[in-house]
Amino acid sequence: MGDSGSAPMTSNDGDIPGSVPVLIVGGGPVGLLQALLLSRLNVRSLIVERYPERLGAPKAHAINPRSLEILRQYGLGEKRIRSLGTARADGHWVNFVTSLSGEAVGRLPYERMDVAVLDDTPEMIHNISQPVLEEELTKLIEQDPNIALKKGYSIHSVLQGEDEVTATIKQTRGENLYKVTARHLIACDGRKSRVRELLEIPSEGEGSDQTMMTIHFSANLRPVVGDRVGMLYWIMDPIAAGFIIGYDLGETQVHISEVDTAEYPVESWTEEMCRAKVRAAIGQDVSFDILSFRPWVFRRQIAKTFQKGNILLSLVSPTGGLGLNCGIADVHNLAYKIAMIHHKVAGASILSTYTPERRSIADNYSKQSVKNGDKIFKLVKSLNMAGVTDIEEARKNLHEALKDPRQREKVDEGIEEQREHFDNLEHHIGYVYGSDKPPTHASYYHPKFIAGARLPHAWISFTPSARIQASTMRLEPIDVSYVKELSAAQISQCQWSTLDLCNPDSFTLILGEQDNQGHTRFSKVEKHFEDKDIPLNVWRLGQDLSVVRQSWFASEIRRGGLLIRPDQHILMRITSLKSSEEIISVLDSHLKV
Questions:
Q1: What tens-digit pLDDT sequence spans the chain (593 residues)?
Q2: Which of 290, 316, 351 is where one domain is finished?
Q3: Burial level of 326, CB count in 10 A (0-12/13-18/19+)?
Q4: Helix, strand, coil % in the chain, rounded to nearest 5
Q5: Which domain holds residue 495?
Q6: What is the pTM of this model?
Q7: Alpha helices of 320-433 — where are they, by DSSP H?
Q8: Are 15 and 137 in contact (CB under 8 A)?
Q9: 3-class DSSP string for 205-225
Q10: Measured between alpha carbons, how far apart are the two ends of the chain, in Å?
Q11: Secondary structure (DSSP) of 235-302
Q12: Which SUPFAM superfamilies does its entry note (predicted)?
């Protein structure tokens, strides 16, 4: 899309530029990614992060299929990220145990890590700790001349103008103030957003909060768990009731539990209290170190609007593997819209689509998180331990409940009810922009060929005549060699996805097998894109590419096609009855031109 289309960065007297096209508040993974996406679209940005150094505790761990698809689309090292973090063989399971060395109570798959999920997405879920992800994104930013990252600076005030935002930035450790003018400001500063507070944007959510404690510790747990490897361990011991996230079973883990603040105020917690919890969770004498511990609040909180003028919000609230990924999808939705405004391709009001498209998704995510949390903690509390203050009596009740056939049947049913908690594929890739309807079931994904849906994934191959065009995608073949069950022949079929047809700076037209009249119709559409200087990639099934495995994809668009937005979501399903004028009208309406 050519040059940035907006003024370059100009300097204050200090380190902070006085003028930037886009100001991003918050240097967590969502803010970092927003800057990288914009840079790939040739829009410069400044990130201000209030902490001089980010927290070392792992926090978020699940990078879902959609997030990895987004990283791949923008060439942001999804293969590198998959090489870090938890190996698939270690992260495949959720174990329910009395303690890590105690009785195995039950087991469920952790998300969709089976071979069959590759028919729904080219990118299987991957587990990597948030600090490692942030480090990888920061390395990319340090090499990017379009991005300035300033740590130790916080937002002090914002003033909304007609076409720009003026922000005052303050040194976190000092009194210096800097004024920064930006065309757009994007708030990625979390649930306690200072930007949202300054704008007086209210939030909605559940009325009650749950206080949680995260204990970050290091230990070699492999000898303890043996062949019971897994991503999550739900601990039922009365002292350690909660769960362990096994980022690296040989080194780094966290224990997370609910805190009764009336009995144990968070300010009263000590390292020895944490050691007692971790010791009980492990269940045997193993050497470990407490690296840190911190309280946090489990709360469903969604801003009432994600936009106020030229200020946009991406505020991560959900937990349970949904929050970070929700934020990544937010900034993916924003990136091409902001870039097209800066490059004078779209009208400013294209951003009016952001709140209606993303808020309902965030709301559904947060409700699912609360539902998951309520169900699982209810299970842990149901084992005859509630209200029992004597630890040994509580442990006795736990083991007796597990031995009693009727009680054990209820426990097994309770564990089975958690299956949806650990399988959210419909939430990950099945959401539809423009629909407020929550998924019927979090786990049951089915491909959708409707406006607002993510383009369904199918494995494809390019014809010899189209390989030159394919080379312009600037992508390497997908690597599924980490899925050890696949043969060499199967791996060779899984190199390119329909999602790879969508460049992030372009609209994409995928056409089924047409008659001559259909090609004439689409020629008019192509000319409209050319006249408006809007990038468009056109792919024809049968002529440029073929579907390798999922024949239903070709059947769905046989005498029509799909017009795809730069964010890989369908703008319009084109049937044989749609005229070129109707297609052009839908495009212009989306771009607000």
A1: 555 445 455 545 557 889 999 999 999 999 999 999 999 999 999 999 999 887 777 778 899 999 999 999 999 999 999 999 999 999 999 999 999 999 999 999 999 999 999 999 999 999 999 999 999 999 999 999 999 999 999 999 999 998 999 999 999 888 889 999 999 999 999 888 999 999 999 887 755 578 889 999 999 999 999 999 999 999 999 899 999 999 999 999 999 998 888 888 889 999 999 999 999 999 999 999 999 999 988 777 788 899 999 999 997 665 555 688 999 999 999 999 999 999 999 999 999 999 999 999 988 877 777 777 777 767 766 665 656 678 888 888 888 888 989 888 888 988 998 888 899 999 999 999 999 888 888 899 999 999 999 999 999 999 887 766 666 677 899 999 999 999 999 999 999 999 999 999 999 999 998 754 556 778 899 999 999 999 999 999 999 999 998 889 999 998 899 999 999 999 999 988 788 999 999 999 999 98
A2: 351
A3: buried
A4: 35, 25, 40
A5: 459-591
A6: 0.94
A7: 323-342, 354-381, 391-403, 405-416, 425-429
A8: no
A9: ECCCCEEEEEEEEECCCHHHH
A10: 17
A11: E--TTT-EEEEEEETTTEEEEEEE--TTTS-GGG--HHHHHHHHHHHH-S----EEEEEEEEEE--EE
A12: FAD/NAD(P)-binding domain (SSF51905)
- One domain for residues 346 and 473: no
CATH classification of the domain holding 182: 3.50.50.60
Q: Which residue in this structure is represented by tokens 């000092």?
A: 174
Residue 395 lies inside a defined structural domain of this protein: no
**Angle between the N-to-C axes of helices 580-591 and 516-531, in degrees from 0 to 180, rounded to the nearest 10:** 30
For residues 327 and 195, membership in a common domain is answered with yes
Amino acid at 151: K
CA distances from 192 to 130, 202, 208 (A): 19, 12, 16
Integer CA distances (angstroms), 5 to 130, 558, 588, in order: 33, 39, 20
Name the residue with tokens 């006249």. 531
Residue 582 in tokens: 């109707």
Burial class, 44, CB count within 10 angstroms (exposed 0-12 / middle 13-18 / buried 19+)? buried
What CATH number should be reported for the domain holding residue 480? 3.40.30.120
The residue with tokens 């886009």 is 22
